[in-house]
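Side project, low priority. Logging it here so it doesn't get lost.
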Amino acid sequence: MFLQILVAFVIFGLLQGLYGGVNELITKMSADNLDVQSRGTHDPLPIAYRNKLQQIPGVSVVGFNNYLNGYFQNQKQPVFVIATDPKAFLSLRRKLETDGSNLDAMERKKGGVIVGETLAKRYGWKVGDTIPIHTSVQQTTGVTTWTFDIVGTFTIRDAAGLDNFVVANNSYLNDLRATNRDKVTIYTLRVSDPAQASAIADSIDRAFANSDHETQTDQDRDLAQSQLASFGNLNFIVNAVTLASLIALLFSVFALMMKSFRERYSEFAILKAMGFSNGKVAYLVLAESFLLFIAGTLCGLLIARALFPLANRYTEDFGAISLPLSVICTAVLLALSIALACAALPAWRGFKLSVVDALADR
């Protein structure tokens, strides 16, 4: 019984915890950041848009990103490179922390990069190393291997383990790549008044309406929500799976508790013969069920919590998540409810148990 309860609440903690944790992160996302992409397509936007975006009333900072997906020495060593304006990037991503001298070094050396400490430790990189990254993006010379010089490292505050990417100068990428020169994948902006973010987003899209590259501007949290929705109706899937596991748990544990009670008829009868009241025998049955469920639930939630660092590898777009307190409270309440449902009938039978009849059946 204990193992069944443990497995059920590991599933509950992981599924409900991941979904609830991601939603919590999305609601906590900065309300003053906007993302500007190409409307209806995945085509990049002209880098010349940056000057026009800076002139939109209410926009205080304009940054942009291009991306390189590749690997270090073999394909089991993936590397994700964000090519950007480093100072604007750090201004917009306020949890990213690095020494100011690293940005100065990147300005002096176009091929200079800062790497996340987690990634540097994983691959044994250190400041001063020159690293080749193999990609599918071709340079003007025809090669697809990009060489970078590590000038510093960075961390992400309150998100241990998610600093597993590289920040590079977009000017280096732009000068050498064979296609999509003077283009960017996405613009990220900060607005001076978060309350006006929606109105500013509309102003941006109107400014580029009917152009060759129309824009779609969203708040960070809206973009993250749409990315989450792209996986399907996760709310229904998560609730359906957890509900099915809990219903299966209810029926299986109820059957086992009834069997266990029948096998101990004579033991409960002896307790009554020794002076235990009907109520005390019923309480013993209930206490056994509650203790079993609480122990199994807490152990299951602890295992689920221990697995969250692994799950964070797949939620990097949203940030580091942990098991929400609301999920823990819900799990405990469900465990107590199921424990009561499983033990109610055995407890009632224990309450009504006849000493003479039970001992006569021994």
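Brief comment: The two ends are 26 Å apart (CA to CA).
Revisit when time allows.
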